[in-house]
Design a protein that fits this description.
Elements (H helix, E strand, L loop, with lengths): L9 E7 L2 E7 L11 H7 L3 E7 L1 H11 L9 E5 L2 H4 L5 H15 L5 E6 L1 H5 L4 H11 L5 E6 L9 H11 L11 E5 L4 H14 L4 E4 L14 E5 L5 H9 L3 E2 L7 H15 L4 H19 L3 H4 L3 E4 L6 H10 L4 E7 L4 H8 L8 E5 L1 H11 L3 E4 L1 H9 L4 E3 L1 H5 L8 H18 L2
Parallel strand pairs: 2-13, 3-4, 3-5, 5-6, 7-8, 7-9, 9-10, 11-12, 11-14, 12-13, 14-15
Antiparallel strand pairs: 1-2
């Protein structure tokens, strides 16, 4: 789905630490927040996501997820028909009937998410009230939560943020002052396992991940809980956790070798782990990661790259590509710059980096066409036209779907950017 925003002011400088940030507000192209269901439903194996939306919503989800004909996905769309839109039907009564049918077919569902869309928000459907009603109708059997996945948000990754925010209120309480570490943000299971081993070696724990692999096994939360964000687009979730007494640790994100070191180091300092012990534990995985990364740095070093705003992963990935792979940053665009969550990352960018908050697609396209970077990171809607003009591109949504966090994934992340450059070189006549 695409979203068009009314034209507004552009290139208004705004400070972010010592870095100047230009703002733009005009047309932009992005998926909507429903895309978050694609990775959230894979993570929480006992959850089901029911989108209250249109046939377009259903088509987008099925296309993004690449669902096979024999698969049994844990998401569906309650399609709003014309009579619903015209107010000729009791939408809430029909939703209740649909949920009953769904539970008959899928008794394994422990948590049901009602996901708002553009049509449901335009109709002012109170899915929060519907969630309360349905939870009360199935006491002890089912928890129903509601969140917005509409295209009215800033970027498609905010679907995860609104989902986790909705879950925070249901987290059980941990005794006051009892310490624990909570890693927040959807990670691939293999990445979770790697981080678990490193935290255990550092003596940091109890350790919990949020979202959990089972939505019915929610991590406890209290004043002694310290939070490490694994994703840079979880501002609402972070504030909700803090409202319940948790402390968010400031750190770069675990992207690349350097980012992973600093991220783990933030937890180590909070737990009083000695620097020598931290260095000892991280030495072997960091060396292995550097050896694997060296395979791709010759393909990336010296290459010029530009980022269109799309996923909110742009700044951490740009930092990795510049500092560890030797790429030159022409422009780094982000849909929204949460300065509190991103200051640690911005501080690592080279002075004078062109940072853009928001989007003006036409203006950015003009700059890309004039500067002709070696690689442009952008959404699907822009990639094909730019490829037709002879510019190599990387789909930004692929970076959300792929395991890219941690030492072991640093080389895999570099390969994602080296691959289109290698392909273009091989296709030269």
């Amino acid at each position: 789905m695409s979203l068009t925003v009314a034209p507004g002011d552009t290139d208004v400088p705004a400070p972010c630490g010592e870095m100047a940030v230009a703002r733009a507000s005009s047309q932009r192209q992005a998926f909507c927040g429903l895309a978050g269901i694609v990775w959230l439903h894979r993570k929480m194996q006992d959850a089901f996501f029911l989108v209250v939306g249109s046939r377009t919503c259903a088509h987008m989800l099925q296309s993004a997820a690449g669902v096979m004909i024999f698969a049994a996905p844990r998401f569906a769309t309650a399609i709003l028909e014309e009579r619903d839109l015209a107010g000729l039907a009791d939408v809430h009564a029909e939703l209740d009937r649909l949920v009953e049918r769904l539970l008959e077919r899928r008794p394994d569902i422990a948590t049901l998410f009602l996901v708002g869309s553009c049509p449901s928000e335009v109709l002012k459907l109170d899915l929060g009230k519907a969630a309360e009603r349905l939870t009360q109708a199935h006491p002890g059997r089912l928890r129903v939560l509601a969140y917005s996945g509409s295209g009215l948000e800033t970027s498609f990754t905010q679907g995860e943020d609104t989902c986790l925010e909705a879950m925070v209120g249901d987290l059980p309480s941990r005794p006051a002052g009892e310490r624990a570490l909570l890693v927040v943000g959807t990670l691939a299971d293999v990445v979770e396992d790697q981080f678990s081993r490193l935290f255990a070696a550092l003596g940091i724990g109890p350790l919990h991940f949020f979202p959990p692999r089972l939505s019915s096994e929610l991590p406890p939360l209290g004043s002694g809980t310290q939070v490490l964000l694994a994703q840079p687009f979880l501002g609402r979730t972070a504030r909700a956790l803090e409202a319940r007494g948790a402390q968010v640790l400031e750190a770069p994100y675990p992207i690349g070798i350097e980012g992973t070191r600093l991220w783990l180091g933030a937890a180590a300092r909070a737990w009083g782990v000695a620097e020598a012990r931290l260095a000892e534990i991280l030495e072997r995985p960091a060396v292995r990661a550097a050896q694997a990364l060296a395979r791709y740095t010759p393909e990336l070093a010296g290459k010029r790259i530009a980022f269109f705003p799309d996923s909110q992963l742009e700044i951490p990935i740009a930092r990795f590509l510049q500092r560890e792979c030797g790429m030159e940053l022409l422009e780094v665009g982000v849909p929204y710059l949460d300065r509190r969550l991103m200051d640690a990352e911005v501080a690592l960018l080279p002075a004078g980096t062109r940072l853009l908050e928001g989007a003006d697609v036409d203006e950015q396209l003009e700059r890309v066409r004039a500067e002709r970077p070696d690689l442009t990171v952008c959404g699907l809607g822009l990639a094909n036209p730019l490829e037709a003009e002879g510019l190599a591109t990387k789909w930004s949504i692929e970076l959300v779907f792929s395991p890219i966090q941690g030492f072991e994934q640093a080389a895999d992340l570099a390969e994602l950017f080296a691959r289109p450059l290698i392909r273009r070189e091989r296709l030269k006549v």
